[in-house]
Amino acid sequence: MQPFAMQRHVEYYEADMTGKLSLPMILNWAVLASKMQGDALGVGQDVHLARGLGWVILQYEVTVKRRPKINEAVKVQTFAAKYNPFFVRRPFAFFDAAGEEVIRVDSIWAMIDIENRRMARIPEDIINAYQAEYVKQIPRIPNPAHFASDEVYEAKDYHVRYLDIDANQHVNNSKYFEWMQDVMAPEFLNTHEVTTINLRFENEIRLGHTIQSQVVHQEHESKHRIMMGDVVSAEAEFKWRDA
């Protein structure tokens, strides 16, 4: 398999109110590293977009030891680990200047036909460039906990804007983290640090849709759901520690 690493510094606009790398930006950095690797291998966005194909992420599992601070140097390392004709398992590791792993992101990817919005077989010439291991079945990430039917949740509505949409013609993944965090009280976010996140995408959201971000949370865990009407678009489970 072909490993790839990129070097970054946390800029002020990539941090939240705590001065640390924001949760949406963790996903943006991971996706950027994967894009840069594809470009370096000659199978980047221009190649698959020319065929009407786009990469999408189906699920993330994020483990956070600590979030890097503004101006801190970070190395993000990734590779395509395992694949079959329709799915790829890709890990990301974030290292600080001392070489200590501070964040790990495991992810499952697929390709879609952009025009008909259906899953597509991954072209062999594209996946072969990564030298990933072929497996019949991709190791699964456990599903996040579901909402119980009788649970009381807090909620907020959002309209999907033009700038929420990326080149694959769907909502950028980091927007889900924004919606999920924004429905929580700033006082809680300023006094707690996330330790693990399990986020699973279920149904696509498009430009002009109105969604509702819902949360049920206790002191050290929260469950999240993005709804479009009665349809679940994404579910997530967060675990927290005192800051």
Description:
This protein is of the alpha+beta class and 243 residues long. The protein has five helices and 13 strands. The protein has helices spanning 23-40, 45-50, 124-128, 173-182, 186-191, and strands at residues 4-9, 53-64, 73-78, 82-83, 88-95, 101-113, 118-120, 133-134, 154-159, 192-201, 210-217, 221-228, 231-242. Strands 1, 2, 3, 4, 5, 6, 7, 8, 9, 10, 11, 12 and 13 form a 13-stranded mixed β-sheet that branches. Helix 1 runs antiparallel to helix 4 (173-182). The N and C termini lie far apart (38 Å). 32% of the residues are buried. The mean pLDDT is 95. This is Acyl-ACP thioesterase. Keywords: Fatty acid biosynthesis, Fatty acid metabolism, Hydrolase, Lipid biosynthesis, Lipid metabolism, Transit peptide. InterPro entries: Acyl-ACP_TE_C (IPR049427), Acyl-ACP_thioesterase_NHD (IPR002864), FATA/B (IPR045023), HotDog_dom_sf (IPR029069). Residues 4-130 form the Acyl-ACP thioesterase N-terminal hotdog domain. Residues 149-241 form the Acyl-ACP thioesterase-like C-terminal domain.
List its salient traits.
5 helices; 13-stranded mixed beta sheet; 243 residues
Task: Write a compact overview of the structure shown.
With 243 residues, this protein is of the alpha+beta class. Helix content is 19%, strand content 40%. Strands 1, 2, 3, 4, 5, 6, 7, 8, 9, 10, 11, 12 and 13 form a 13-stranded mixed β-sheet that branches.
Overall helicity: 10-25%
The helix/strand series, from N terminus to C terminus, equals EHHEEEEEEHEEHHEEEE
Overall, the morphology is: globular
Tell me the number of helical segments per DSSP (H or I, 4 or more residues long).
5
- Radius of gyration from the CA trace? 18 Å
Q: Would you report the number of β strands?
A: 13
Structural class: alpha+beta
Per DSSP, what share of the residues sits in E-state strands of 2 or more residues? 35-45%
Average pLDDT over all residues: 95
Outline the biggest β-sheet. 13 strands, mixed
Q: What distance lies between the first and last C-alpha atoms, to the nearest angstrom?
A: 38 Å
Low-confidence stretches: none
Family: Belongs to the acyl-ACP thioesterase family.
Keywords: Fatty acid biosynthesis, Fatty acid metabolism, Hydrolase, Lipid biosynthesis, Lipid metabolism, Transit peptide
Protein name: Acyl-ACP thioesterase
Domain Acyl-ACP thioesterase N-terminal hotdog: 4-130
